[in-house]
Backbone:
């Protein structure tokens, strides 16, 4: 193993705060404690990641206040240090971390607010593909319709929560000063890029389920059947017209084999 | 060996550029000629959203350069293929005026430290960085500029001075250099070397861009350490050093970097004007001494 690799691993451990002893001997003091020099990098590691997450999760930060946010992020960095060089991709598991973080137990809606903020961030960095016109399906043979699988806009995200996270987000975004009745129940949200910005809105349960099944790659026929089972009044033709009208379908293919019926929608 | 000069030099000297951050994007789009050119951190545009589309539109109206901060060219573990490929696709898409990265490392054991950490300057490190730079240049199909880092520590077993290390890297790989004048000042103060002597030791013909930025002083262990935070105006001492750099390197695309505590766009443009005024002053004073100036 190279000396340089050993050195970089040792510096890395020092920055993570695991062990500074083995590396400080390799650092020249130049009038300062070598450990204090290493600490400048360790401080930057934590403060720059905290700033990055503050930008992605401004409402979570406001809900718990900045000091607590810094404390939570510090623990999060320990458990999930960045594995990729792009900062906008760091923090994807922060909602799950908050869900399991004991000091946050009194704020049960917090992880879902974080999920919404991550979805906004992810949608913001997704490509915007050219939407298909409904007429594009005319090329497909009707016999193949049962195997039809749609590809939806890459920025589309769907989040269901037992809490009114959209209203919580609106009431606590920077500059807002509102209160939210937490007992009013949950919401099903669609988050997507629209034009040059990211928007989100509530969907009716059947619409939400259909889009969820399709986004998960279920064939159209199976997805419609599953939705109709829970909502017999659901109108498939109208739903498809909205799907195309909103520019959400960007491609289609045919499933090669029989795909089992969807059983449960992802949260 | 990659040919540096043709690709790296613009036909005429540019007015100074500014580092472009998201809050200024719409204002710049409305007036793209506000600065001579714009530089962005490549990693901020590796997604495919509205920001990238805006940058592509800006690219139609103004020179743009890509400044990488995540390639970790000094990593003993080598550079990440996926990341290099993302950079290559961005370069292909934007055809930037310059592509630059750092003489530093950012990752070990698969963890990214979101920082530009200094290398020990040894023969081993030189071979390794040279191999990584050559690989990056081959993948990108063009030479890159390597920036001198701002440092808060140096290693006991270093055997080569930083400017000589950079000169060797240029010799081995044909890369160019991005001379960050503020970094030289910051490192010089933190590590106790002479900034002017450092400038003089750089291979002048390889320099294809200059960076200027603000720093601040921080008390650490009873003495002041300069932190390169790009969060204030360029310091007076750094302007003085910039004038020296112009003397050595001739007119180069010069960039004002301002990344945190971001002020109004007009403040950045004011700094860019100041850089241009200083360049005019210095270059008019001694026009005969610039063998490397191609179009003054």
Residues:
């Amino acid at each position: 193993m190279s000396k340089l690799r050993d050195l970089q691993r040792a510096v890395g451990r020092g920055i993570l705060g695991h062990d500074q002893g083995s590396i400080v001997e390799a650092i020249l003091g130049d009038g300062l404690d070598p450990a204090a020099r290493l600490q400048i990098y360790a401080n930057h590691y934590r403060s720059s990641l905290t700033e990055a997450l503050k930008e992605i999760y401004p409402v979570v930060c406001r809900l718990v206040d900045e000091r607590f946010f810094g404390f939570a992020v510090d623990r999060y960095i320990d458990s999930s240090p960045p594995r990729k060089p792009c900062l906008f991709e760091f923090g994807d598991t922060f909602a799950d971390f908050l869900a399991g973080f004991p000091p946050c137990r009194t704020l049960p809606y917090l992880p879902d607010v974080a999920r919404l903020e991550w979805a906004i961030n992810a949608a913001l960095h997704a490509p915007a593909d050219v939407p298909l016109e409904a007429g594009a399906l005319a090329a497909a043979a009707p016999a193949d319709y049962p195997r039809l699988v749609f590809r939806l806009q890459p920025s589309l995200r769907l989040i269901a929560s037992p809490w009114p996270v959209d209203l919580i987000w609106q009431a606590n975004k920077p500059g807002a000063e509102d209160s939210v009745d937490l007992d009013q129940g949950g919401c099903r949200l669609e988050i997507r890029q629209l034009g040059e910005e990211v928007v989100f809105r509530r969907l009716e349960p059947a619409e939400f389920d259909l889009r969820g099944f399709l986004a998960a790659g279920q064939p159209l026929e199976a997805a419609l059947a599953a939705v109709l089972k829970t909502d017999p009044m659901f109108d498939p033709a109208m739903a498809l017209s909205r799907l195309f009208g909103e520019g959400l379908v960007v491609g289609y293919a045919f499933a090669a084999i029989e795909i089992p019926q969807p059983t449960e929608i992802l949260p | 060996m990659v040919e540096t000069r043709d690709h790296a030099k613009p036909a005429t000297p540019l007015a100074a550029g500014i580092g472009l951050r998201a809050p200024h994007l719409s204002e710049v789009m409305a007036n793209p000629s506000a600065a001579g050119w714009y530089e962005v951190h490549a990693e901020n545009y590796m997604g495919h959203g509205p920001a990238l589309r805006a940058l592509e539109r800006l690219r139609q109206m103004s020179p743009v350069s890509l400044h990488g901060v995540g390639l970790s060219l000094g990593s003993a573990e080598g550079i990440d293929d996926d990341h290099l490929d993302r950079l290559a696709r961005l370069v292909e898409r934007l055809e930037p005026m310059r592509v630059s990265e750092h003489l530093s490392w950012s990752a070990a054991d698969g963890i990214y430290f979101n920082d530009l950490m200094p290398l020990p300057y040894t023969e081993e490190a030189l071979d390794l960085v040279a191999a990584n730079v050559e690989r990056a240049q081959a993948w990108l199909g063009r030479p890159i500029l390597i920036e001198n880092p701002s440092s808060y520590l140096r290693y006991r077993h270093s055997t080569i001075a930083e400017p000589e290390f950079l000169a060797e890297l240029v010799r081995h790989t044909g890369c160019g250099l991005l001379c960050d004048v503020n970094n030289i000042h910051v490192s010089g103060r933190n590590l106790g070397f002479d900034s002017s002597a450092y400038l003089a030791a750089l291979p002048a013909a390889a320099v294809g861009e200059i960076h200027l930025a603000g720093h601040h002083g921080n008390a650490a262990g009873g003495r002041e350490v300069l932190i390169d935070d790009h969060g204030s105006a360029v310091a007076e001492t750094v302007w003085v050093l910039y004038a020296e750099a112009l003397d050595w390197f001739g007119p180069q695309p010069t960039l004002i970097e301002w990344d945190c505590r971001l002020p109004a766009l007009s403040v950045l443009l004011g700094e860019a004007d100041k850089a241009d005024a200083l360049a005019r002053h210095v270059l008019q004073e001694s026009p005969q001494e610039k063998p490397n100036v191609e179009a003054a």
